Amino acid sequence: MPHYSSVTIEKDASNPRIARLLLNRPERFNAINEAMPREIRTAVEWANAEPEVHVIVVEGAGKGFCGGYDLSYFGSGRIDHPCQQEKQPWDPMVDYAFMKKNTDDFMSLFRSSKPTIAKVHGAAVAGGSDIALCCDLLVMSDDAKIGYMPTRVWGCPTTAMWTFRLGPTRAKQMMFTGDTIDGRTAAAWGLANQSVPAAELDAAVHALATRISSVPSSHLAMHKLVVNQVVQTMGLEQTQSLATLMDGITRHNPEGLWFRRYAQAEGFKAAVAWRDSGKPIPEGDEARAAIVELEKKQ
User: pLDDT tens-digit profile of 234-244?
Assistant: First the structure.
């Protein structure tokens, strides 16, 4: 079996037609580091090359599915990185190239000829929701959370899957508020295929994967190709390009830079608490003035 630093993949012990792709950074809530997007893609490629595998289950180790990008590195640190540039002026195309590559890696779950099932416990939030929503099917525990809180400031979901999975009205609600919803609500809205009590999640996902795995792999590939073609015809690739550009802007405009400077000066927990509280976020000249004061503290 392949060996990676941030994920694992292996055939299910009880049914080798099922591959289990595990996001495996439990000490960081399976937060996305620089290796994880590439390793997801290569793990999916491995499963697609295995004739015995018919379906891929994606899950998270430890307390949850994925808490998004690892902000101890990308967020609060004073780094000059393609997706968070300290130097001015920032280069949007350097940012775009880095984030578009990550988006394309996550989308390997969508492009996979073999069906993919996201099994979500705990939370799939921010970039973690991108991973979950790139999967074909989504099964959640009733108490699990999914959402993209950084839409309030410092982020735009680059996969744009919220709109294609929920439709414009619900997607706007999620993007405008940055709220999370639980598994029950996700199922009621049609975002999740199924929501079950946490104690029943393993059995529910295994039953679904087993049912799918009995179908010839060629038939699964054809059915998936037809449905994916509809989504692509609706403009998925073009929308992802725009969303990825918007994501870079949200992290480098005055409001995004204020959030980053506040996290650097006061700690990321404090910045996230402000973001999610509903308290107005500094904008424009107010944000610029606040940035100057925050930089004096560093």
Answer: 999 999 999 99
pLDDT digits (tens, 9 = 90+) for 239-292: 999 999 999 999 999 999 999 999 989 988 999 999 999 999 999 999 999 999
CB-based burial, 169-201: b 16+ in 10 Å, e otherwise: ebbeebbeebbbbbbbbbbeeebbbbbbeeeeb
Burial 215-237 (b: 16+ CB within 10 A, else e): eebeebbeebeeeeeeeeeeebe
Phi, psi at 296, each rounded to 5° = -70, -25
DSSP letter (8 states) at residue 88: S
Under a CB-based contact definition with an 8 Å cutoff, are residues 148 and 125 in contact? yes
* Coil, helix or strand at residue 286: helix
CA 41 – CA 67 distance, rounded (Å): 19
- Classify burial at 276, counting beta carbons within 10 Å of its beta carbon; exposed 0-12, middle 13-18, buried 19 or more: middle
Predicted local confidence at residue 89, as pLDDT: 87
Q: Encode 127-149: b = buried (16+ Cβ within 10 Å), e = exposed.
A: bbbbbbbbbbbbbbbbebbbbbb
Give 133's contacts (C-beta < 8 A, 6+ positions apart). 118, 159, 161, 162, 165, 191
Mean pLDDT across 90-100: 94
- CB-based contact 148:109 (threshold 8 Å): no
Average pLDDT of the segment spanning 201-223: 98
Say which amino acid occupies 260: R
Token duo for residue 165: 């999975």
Calculate the average pLDDT of the chain. Answer: 95
What's phi and psi for 194, nearest 5 deg? -160, 145
